[in-house]
Amino acid sequence: MHIQIAFRVLGVLLMIFSLTMLPPVFVSWIYDDGVGIIFINTFLFTLLTGFILWLFFRWDETDMRIKDGFLVTFLFYVALGTVGAIPFAQEAGIALSWPNALFESFSGITTTGATVITGLDQLPESILYYRQQLQWLGGMGIIVLAVAILPMLGIGGMQLYRAETPGPVKDSKLTPRIKQTAMALWSIYLGLTAVCAISYWLAGMTFFDAICHSFSTVAIGGFSTHDSSIGYFDSALIESIAIVFMVLSGINFGLHFFALKEKALFHYFQDDEVVWYLLILATAILIVTLILVSHQVYEVPQAFRLAAFEVVSIFTTTGFATADFSVWPNMIPYLIFFGAFTGACAGSTGGGMKVMRVMLIIKQGQREIHRLIHPNAIFPIKINKRPVSNNVIEAIWGFFSFYVIIFLFLDLIMVSQGMDFLTAFSAVGAAMNNLGPGLGSVAYHYNDITDTAKLVLCFAMMLGRLEIFTLLVLFSPMFWRK
Length: 482
Known about the structure:
- This protein has helices at residues 3-18, 22-31, 36-57, 66-84, 86-89, 98-109, 125-140, 142-149, 158-164, 178-203, 207-218, 236-249, 253-262, 266-269, 272-294, 300-315, 332-342, 355-373, 390-416, 421-432, 451-465, 469-472, 477-480, and strands at 382-383, 386-387.
- It is mainly α.
- The protein has a domain at 361-480.
- It has a two-stranded antiparallel ribbon.
């Protein structure tokens, strides 16, 4: 373990991140909202902090190892969430308390989308833009952007990429060099964002709203510039565009890369995870529509429109809303909320446990049933017609075990903070799955929960964003041994 290289890289990353404070200054100048100074202050503070860290440790020439990558990833997310809270806490901005500011910042950078802010329609445009930008940077992982630049600075990037990239299999690269891989991912990410923004604008959003909502749509974040979220626009066309881009952003970006490279769509339909992902969404939309119609809540067209949007939004862990699904009848609120536990595909900007893991767990269960019938037979688990190694299966079961144990532990902490069980369960689920909206008292916002609960949920958001093991590995004594 090389603490010095971790702080040196952290300093470089903070200096890079400080530049993201400049676009909100430009937005503040355009709209003359008078709060640009808070972003200038944050820019200077972040740049100076990063420069000091780099200056003190610039002499270290040690190569970065995978252990250093885990530590840098953790430190950077903590630093990012903390620095990102400064504009929310400053008096010239919206003067949130520090627990609230930290909650909003970590929710943004982890693309969770939970909020403590009400009255979004009255906030300065630069603050609204900044919230959306936080989610967009967190969507693909700002560290993936950084590893495209770090090789130019003489700092290896593969260790960071493996620590940051979501999904059960982290060793695959789209291109031979990590810099090219990061650039390929971000090119696709930028392209999707641009097309989404143009589509929103042509569908009737203002240019400002189109840019902001494209950020949170492609990042699968769910922040909005309006309290009513996408429901503010009351447009079937805008909702359809949101559904398309939420579904696309929930697919492994590696598949987008190969589809563009080969100029063919067959890659998507030959991928087992994507097929499961689309089947899960279609089945849930059908069930929710049928229940809404059978309970005479809506007529068929309206029921389908609302069901499709809410199912895709929650199942992909985006968190946009056009209706309050928490008050829908029968099992609908729980069905929709539990969909976020499965989440989107591995290698996407979505949260949850990932469709890949759930699919492999189900296949493993089927194999055990088959073994009971034929004890001596060999039943390999296959994905895309290829056998999956036992190491991957063991890793997934390890992930699932820790997920359940940590979930229950955090749930008890929330109950100890005075929450009823439904609110506690959904708050932890929404945080760990990077979803945002919950049920019960956190269906609309998280402002009414205790400061302790907010800080615990910030930790849960990081657990979900870094897929548990990247964070838990730091608590292992073996990690700190030489």
